[in-house]
Every structure is written in structure tokens, then in C-alpha cells.
Amino acid sequence: MKRILIVLSCLFILFGCSIKSNSEEKTSKVVGIIGVTSIDTLIYSAQKDEDLINKIEKGFNLKNVEDKQVDNSDLKLTLIDREGKIEDFEVNYKQNIYLHKGIVYKLDTKLTKLLQEQFMN
Fold it and tell me: Does the pTM exceed 0.70?
């Protein structure tokens, strides 16, 4: 009987820890985005533009590898998280692709529209 109680209590502890870690991952860690175009530099912060940052971050998390090369980038994005870690992306609107850490990914059409609305002049 004691063994069953010990096993059940361990399961509850492990289950509780796993729920906590899943909820922590859902909150955005990105606190700022810097977008550099050929004309302008735009900065968005999580304090004022939290919804926009969440949408952009979600779009870049959908990673579909594309067998292309980025000819030239229309936009260079830098995402900064709470720990100060920086992630750089190079976006090409015409090809619907972006470059991240040397790998080319397909850009989602919704994200392409959103980026063009926010960063194109």
C-alpha cells in the first residue's frame, strides 16, 4: 500500500512539473524586434507591440525548409529575447523565403503580409 502511495505521489509531482513547463513555453520570450530596410530602421518593443511581436515570432517558428538561395534581402530582422539572445533573419518578399542561421525557409503568406505592412514604406 505504501509503495502505491509513493508511486502515485511521484506521478503527481512529475505531472505537475510538466504542466508548469508547458505553460511557461507558451509565453513569448521576445521583448523587441528591430527591422532594417533599405530606407528605414523600425523598432518594436513588447511593452507597446506585444500582439505584433507574438504574431511575428509564431510565423518564424513555422520552419519549412526551402531549397533556394536568398538573392537579396528586403528586410533584416533581429529578434531580442529576455536573456539578451539575438536571432537574425533576412527576408525576401518576392521569393517568399527567409534566411536564418544559414538555412533558407519558406515564408508563410500571412507573415509576409504582416511584415510588408509593418516594415515596407
Answer: no
